[in-house]
Amino acid sequence: QVQLVESGGGLVQAGGSLRLSCAASGRTDSVYVMAWFRQAPGKEREFVIGVTRSGDSTYYADSAKGRFTISRDNAKNTVYLQMNSLKPEDTAVYYCAARFGRIISEITTRYDYWGQGTQVTVPS
Predict the structure, then answer these.
(1) pLDDT in tens, 58-102
(2) CB count in 10 Å sphere of residue 122
(3) How far apart are CA 118 and CA 97, in angstroms?
(4) What one-character-per-residue DSSP string does 48-114 give?
(5) What is the pLDDT of residue 59?
(6) What is the C-alpha to C-alpha distance for residues 52 and 7, in angstroms, rounded to an integer?
(7) What mean pLDDT is reported for the chain?
(8) CA-CA distance, 42 to 65, in Å (whole number)?
């Protein structure tokens, strides 16, 4: 089992920045890919960004390119999502996810574990 706990969400003005953290515990040595997804009200959960264990491979959704960055500290079993130039359309619950597979996937069902989510609100 792997437990994931997100933190760092909140309310931020458009154009501002926010850093989310996801702390993992349990069988973290078996986790290869960590990713962030988000879900806005009335919409499906969507992939945002992912990173492999070594950190040498990342994959960004178009919505994240140029504004969001993912990093991973394996010593702390923590993955971070740095979000800059935030827009109202970034408002959503952000979820951390982990999978044992070696490919960064955009598909939610490919992930084995999920955090409880953290709310990010960017007022218009």
Answers:
(1) 999 999 999 999 999 989 999 999 999 999 999 999 999 999 988
(2) 19
(3) 12
(4) EEEEETTSS-EEE-TTTTTTEEEEEETTTTEEEEEE-S--GGG-EEEEEEEESSSS--S-GGG-SEE
(5) 96
(6) 21
(7) 95
(8) 24
Q: By the 8 A CB rule, do 38 and 64 touch? A: no
CB neighbourhood size of 12 (10 A)? 17
Structure tokens at 45: 């959960």
Beta-carbon count within 10 A of 93 CB? 18
Q: Which residues pair with 60 in a beta bridge?
A: 49
Which tokens go with 110?
A: 């490919």
